[in-house]
Amino acid sequence: MDESVVVSPDWLASRLEEPTVRPVDVRDPWEYDGIGHIPGAVNVPFDSYRDESDVDRGTLPGPDAFADLLSDAGIEPTDTIVAYDDTHGVFAARFVLTALEYGHDDVRLLDGDYSAWNREYETTTAEPEFEPTSYETDPLSREESPLVGLEAVEDALECDALFVDTREAHEFEEARLPGAVRFDWREVVDDETRRLQSEDDLEDLLAEYGITPDREIVLYCNTARRISHTYVVLRALGYEDVAFYEGSLTEWLANDGEVATGAVDS
């Protein structure tokens, strides 16, 4: 597993004293304050970096708004960010995707979540001390970004791309992109440890669905939250040709895109 993308609790615990390693807790403030958090972590709640008012941009908050969030959290563009939540990493992965899109070079997902960390390491309710910064984003160009829009998805449907739907079975059966395979994002998580399965097990699991590194892959769900987790996992495994349909099925249906329905024979 590529540690420049996903890091273990051991990795983070051994670096908490480094001032440039910045844990970011994306849970609600009441969880961060009341339940506790990783020492030194700053709170950037999920709702603060999600904006559903701009359909052309999906739910990204915009570069200026994101810069304000990281400035208020005392984060510099050169810092190593490690994001976590308490829901197997799905909300934290969305933060990772957002930070990457706005040009932060070193942002990683904590393997596991707060509950996994809490089993082995100490937590705190103490607020970390930091000075606000003047963070400036450097958004990826259209060519650099993994995010794709409606027209690119329409083109990919005419090619040999593999569309991966990360939603639940009932959602998939109600409406899906033609030819898509369903891969529940939670399958990569070990329920007992709350951490990702081993690299070998992940590769075997993905191969069962035809999700292999040699394929052009297009991820989608409903509002691009769940695919964030799958995207980060695939990047950590070295997949290179992975597109991220930010508008997902919400945009597709709003534009009367063709869908398939019903159960799929196993």
From TrEMBL:
One function term, GO molecular function aspect: transferase activity
Lineage of producing organism: Archaea, Methanobacteriati, Methanobacteriota, Stenosarchaea group, Halobacteria
Name used for this protein in its record: Sulfurtransferase
Sequence ranges assigned to domain Rhodanese in this UniProt record: 17-126, 157-261
SMART domains hit by this protein: RHOD
Residues making up the signal peptide according to the UniProt record: none
Keywords: Repeat, Transferase
PROSITE patterns in UniProt: RHODANESE_3 (PS50206)
Record-linked InterPro entries: Rhodanese-like_dom, Rhodanese-like_dom_sf, Thiosulfate_sulfurtransferase
Pfam families cross-referenced by the UniProt entry: Rhodanese (PF00581)
